[in-house]
Amino acid sequence: MKADIVIVGGGPAGLAAAIAAAEADSSLDVLILERDRELGGILNQCIHNGFGLHTFKEELTGPEYAARFESRLSELNIRYMLDTMVLNVSSDLVTAVNSTEGVFDVECGAIVLCMGCRERPRGALNIPGLRPAGVFTAGTAQRLVNIEGYMPGKEVVILGSGDIGLIMARRMTLEGAKVKAVCELMPYSGGLKRNIVQCLDDFGIPLLLSHTVVDIKGKERVTSVVIAEVGPDLKPIPGSEEEISCDTLLLSCGLIPENELSRACDVKINPATNGPVVNESFETSVPGVFACGNVLHVHDLVDYVSEESARAGRSAARFVRSSVDPSGAVIQIRNGNGVRYTVPSFVRPDLLEDNLTIRFRSGNVYKDSYIDVVVDGNRILHRKKQIITPGEMEQVILKKTDLSASTGEILVEITEN
After folding, report:
1. Deepest in the core among 105, 148, 372, 383, taking most CB within 10 A?
2. How many domains does the chain have?
């Protein structure tokens, strides 16, 4: 089997990348390989609204947002294969398997990795206790309620204040459950401020910062959990334990980019994001292999996923159409004070489409601080923000003209003055 571009994953990133590649050159044969039984990825179970404010200037639910892209996919006659698991990726070959074709290879000119991310399970958290029923990741509970039609439990404690955990606190409440508390290990929430307000505050659900679960009680089914306050070292403080009766514990303790395929084909991984290191075109360290969406770094807004993925799709189309000269100037992007990482990690000014968007997350909460961008020692951006939190992605947009003469590096940092 052959295709010009293979998109691995049919979620929001894969859909946007495929559409952008086909729109860039209608003669290209674009193929999406999706392991689930339908396109749309995680959007299918996100029935709450709030999607599309940037992309479509209106509030949509997750399925409505996905449907807009699926309609465009149909208009462009883009091929896709469902229930198809990709087994291996190299620079010009994708190996996959499904029930009709068996194991098969797809020869291609470019690959876009759009595998998304997965939740951190209980096994990665080292919570003591037996293995009773009633312990779910928040995303699993969301699928059970919104797609499968099952109610995970009636009395709920949530560990972790990521956006999925916050949204499930509201969802479980609306379905008749009692959410007794949301515990967060860090002294700040990992979710968007609007979700804290709309999902917790509006329903009177307490958010316990600097708290964690230290024990799960129950043999056949969860009967209670023991929570404790943690100190600055994030270790439980003796004597602060409190037992809360419940039959369900939901875990919302972070997302991990799904990069087993990336590592297998020797793509360089950024340890801060657990996603590939990419340039301004979202091309990885392997020429012709691109990455976008949550497989690259975990996003808070799907609109940003679509925007980045569209650029990755156009870049893949350009790579297939014509050879790209990699011999031009390369500027490294360095994360300075308060910045955990930047995407992209370096930029080739000659190959920029227009302006450069750099997205990043902070490593802590900062109030009344500034986002600074320094190019070759000269500060070209100094923007004040009332609050900067790790739960909300930040971005800066630099003009191409500001970078065209650069020979050094771009520094992104957070300063107090």
Report:
1. 372
2. 3
